[in-house]
Design the sequence.
């Protein structure tokens, strides 16, 4: 058994277009001894249009872009890359591998070439399983830094090599090989076949999604309960109270902390205040802390921010009447 680590760089990536300009790979044995290492450069047959993660210009590949015109188009390298990735004796790995597999799929469609057909694994997903944390996607740079691996980002072969080193360090930390990691966490590799792609999965990921959906349902129920109370009691608020003219809005996590939020809004109604679900329409915004889109919307509309703890303290000191 051997490992094939690969990474891809593109001249441009859009929804249905990914013009590959570099395919970097590293082949190792099961002890991570390098057997082959290469950067396959290709003419992307198009202009370079590179953006950063948030869509802004700024991503720079460590290549001379004019040099790519000297290299063949993707179809000339398709057979060689296909043989490398479809080697039955190899475990294929990348970092955030689904993206690169999709790039390959889009290029084969663009040039009307036969679909790739192989199973792939993802060091990012291996990491998630070992950490039991599926809530965020950890970048190669962050993983490399954590595991003491140095590399030059965005050169395909260097990214592939860094992916290999990260995988090696992860295996050493876990005291087991790649197949051992796959078996330990019962990971099912991703797959491309017939231009169709499925991503990696595991029982840990499924449980994360189950818990996330359960929380979503609970939050939705709490949200509905809070607004049923608001809608039922808003018209019963005390006229001419200390909070007459004040319009309150809570952060979502405060709203859904029932029955606390119901008690708070009851105090507001008893003092003549009103409540809105739109932070941009309030003049008093209540949250556990600063930050977030609702917070920014409220302050942009001229609202005053009061922390939840401060509001509770004011209610206690004034026997239910906020100051």
Sequence:
């Amino acid at each position: 058994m051997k490992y094939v680590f690969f990474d891809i760089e593109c001249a441009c990536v859009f929804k249905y277009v990914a013009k590959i300009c570099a395919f970097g790979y590293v082949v190792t044995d099961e002890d991570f001894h390098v057997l082959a290492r290469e950067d396959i450069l290709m003419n992307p047959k198009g202009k370079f249009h590179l953006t950063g993660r948030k869509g802004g210009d700024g991503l720079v590949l460590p290549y001379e872009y004019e040099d790519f015109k000297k290299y063949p188009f993707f179809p000339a390298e398709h057979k060689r890359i296909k043989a490398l990735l479809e080697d039955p004796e190899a475990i294929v790995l990348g970092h955030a591998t689904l993206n690169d597999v999709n790039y390959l799929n889009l290029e084969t469609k663009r040039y009307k070439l036969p679909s790739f057909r192989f199973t792939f694994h993802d060091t990012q997903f291996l990491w998630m399983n070992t950490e039991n944390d599926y809530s965020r996607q950890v970048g190669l740079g962050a993983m490399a830094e954590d595991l003491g691996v140095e590399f030059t980002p965005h050169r395909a072969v260097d990214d592939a090599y860094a992916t290999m080193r990260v995988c090696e360090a992860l295996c050493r930390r876990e005291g087991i090989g790649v197949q051992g990691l796959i078996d330990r966490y019962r990971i099912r590799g991703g797959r491309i076949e017939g231009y169709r792609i499925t991503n990696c999965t595991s029982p840990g990921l499924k449980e994360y999604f189950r818990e996330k959906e359960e929380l979503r349902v609970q939050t939705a129920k709490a949200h509905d309960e809070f607004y049923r109370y608001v809608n039922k009691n808003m018209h019963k608020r005390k006229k001419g109270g200390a909070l007459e003219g004040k319009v309150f809005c809570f952060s979502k996590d405060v709203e859904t902390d029932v029955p606390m939020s119901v008690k708070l809004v009851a105090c507001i109604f008893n003092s003549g205040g009103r409540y809105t679900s739109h932070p941009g329409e309030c003049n008093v915004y209540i949250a556990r802390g600063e930050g977030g889109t609702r917070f920014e919307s409220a302050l942009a509309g001229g609202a005053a921010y009061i922390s939840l703890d401060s509001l509770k303290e004011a209610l206690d000191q004034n026997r239910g009447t906020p100051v």
Remarks:
- The first helix runs from residue 74 to 85.
- Residues 234-317 form a domain with the Rossmann fold fold (CATH 3.40.50.10190).
- DSSP finds eleven helices and eleven strands in the chain.
- The mean pLDDT is 91.
